[in-house]
Each structure stands twice: as structure tokens, then as C-alpha cells.
Amino acid sequence: MWEKQHGRFTTEEMNEARRGVRAQLRTSRTGPAFGMSTVVYDAAVLVAADRNERRAWAEHKARLELGVVPLVPAPVVAQVSRFPNNKPNSGAS
Question: Measured between alpha carbons, how far is 71 from 74 in angstroms, rounded to an integer?
Fold first, then answer.
């Protein structure tokens, strides 16, 4: 879906993203070796995705291809949606 609007990822972009994700899985206690394939996204990942940063989207795609399930805690969603564009609204409460 994202690729339709912004262009396909290059082979180099995807290979770099996969290497990064695999490295994270090797050092994580929630990697496939421990019976779980999940990652918890923080606000920075959602902000990067909102800014259409290719690396964030490539890593997200690589995680999905590797069977890693992304989780986003409700407070993170609330934080990002409360402050769109990563800054508080100046007149609203």
C-alpha cells in the first residue's frame, strides 16, 4: 500500500532493513529463539512512519516478511495522535 504511493523499495533498501531486523532479533529476548516474534513500536516509529521515512517503512515491511508481529501500546497511539506532527497544539486543550 505504501509502495503504491511512494515507489517500490530497492533491493538494497530491503536487504539493509532485513539485516537490521535480523540483528535486532538475535540480540532480543523476544526473538524467534524465545518462542515469540513480536516487537513493540514506540512513538518514534509512528512519527517516522507519519513522515513517510522510507527506512521506517522498509524495516516494518521486513519485520512482517520475517513473521514479526508489531505491537503498539495504547498510550503510544494516544501520545502520537494527541500531538500530530510531533508538537502540542497551541490553543486547544
Answer: 9
* Residue 14 covered by a domain: yes
Alpha-carbon distance of 46 to 35, in angstroms, equals 26
Cα within 13 Å of Cα(29), Cβ side: 0
Q: Give 17-63 pLDDT, tens digit per residue.
A: 888 888 877 766 655 555 558 889 999 999 999 999 999 999 999 99
Contact of 16 with 22, CB cutoff 8 Å: no
Query: What is the largest distance, in Å, between two alpha-carbon atoms of the chain?
Result: 49
> What is the pTM for the complete model shown?
0.68
Q: How many distinct structural domains can be found in the chain?
A: 1
